[in-house]
Amino acid sequence: MxxxxxGSAHLSVVAGIFATTGSLFGKLAGSVEMGSMGLALLKITxxxxxxxxxxxxxxxxxxxxxxxxxxxxxxxxxxxTNYFCSALVGFLAFxxxxxxxxxxxxxxxxxxxxxxxxxxxxxxxxxxxxxxIE
Length: 134
Description:
Order of helices and strands: HHHH
């Protein structure tokens, strides 16, 4: 993934982690029943924290996009981080299990993104060579 520089890769990883954390707080907010004023306040707070983390994740993702030539490398790194961290948080926080089918599907999605990324990078190199020849 030639288009992703070191700083952009770190920003993409941070964006994926923030997206996972936002999802965690969203799930927690959805699981709180509003039986009293305190629980309603807790639900609103968790919802606000979810918005905060998702906004931060989008901000880091946009900064990552600005630091590389193509959007594909940032997308691959951010998606990979988000998928892996979501599975880890689901297991640790909620006792969820993931099947081999889930991991195979996730791997295929990431493999497809990587292949598209490399294909686009090759096309970019070829078009640059054409410009030099003319």
